[in-house]
Amino acid sequence: MTISFPKSSHPSGLHFFKRNPHPKKEDHGDCGVRALTLATGTDYSRVKYYADKWIQETDYEYSEPCWGYRTRYKTSYGGMTAGDLTSIIYEIARSYNTKLRKWYHHSLRTNFHLDNLPSVCIVEQCQHFVCVKDGAIYDSWDSRGKTKKLKEVKSVWCSDNVWNDFMTKHNGDLRAAGVVK
User: Fold this and answer.
1) Which range marks the domain in which residue 142 is found?
2) What's 99's DSSP letter?
3) Which among 21, 109, 118, 168 counts the fewest CB atoms within 10 Å?
């Protein structure tokens, strides 16, 4: 079900809704877990479990992005990479949430603007993941930016259906539509 909002006054065209699925409402380095929880409707504790399990099984010493915290505690609170998020989505899809089997990573160098994003997706900004749903970001803090200059999007994760609708909206050519740089 698509929700329609009035036009946003922010240059990104996106609205902001403060949402923090963390059980204790803590806000520290778990943006990948929060974004995946909010975008897919999966329970926070389950996503956190699979994220921690993935990092504990595959992490190596001095890995990015926050090697000190991440190597010491082996938890997703130390941050995630795009590869980590992709692998966690696939692990959850293999184990119990089969809807996530159709979620894919798409490299999309563009500006953080409503017209440049699929309707429901996880967006990778510079060292941050955020959930975008139907023209609004859902996160524990407003990552749209405080200036008129739009933030850069590195990549997105979304379902096949949503990506196909996005491509159809832009006639299958994102460069000609002015979406990608």
Assistant:
1) 15-20+30-169
2) G
3) 168
Closest CA to 36 of 133, 118, 135: 133
Q: Which two tokens stand for residue 58?
A: 């595959």
The number of folded domains in the chain is 1
**Both tokens of residue 74?**
């082996």
Residue type, 139: D
| pLDDT reported for residue 67 | 47
Span 121-171, pLDDT tens digits? 999 998 899 999 998 999 888 888 887 888 899 999 999 999 999 999 998
Contact predicate 29/79, CB 8 Å: yes
Buried b (16+ CB within 10 A) or exposed e, 85-118: bbbbbbebbeeebeebeebebeebebbbbbebbb
Q: How many CB atoms lie within 10 A of CB 28?
A: 10
Q: Which residue has the tokens 């001095």?
A: 62
pLDDT tens per residue, range 23-58: 777 777 788 999 999 999 999 999 999 988 888 887
User: Does any domain span residue 174?
Assistant: no
Cα separation of 32 and 74, whole Å?
A: 15
CA distance 179 to 181: 7
What distance lies between CA 45 and its chain's CA centroid? Answer: 17
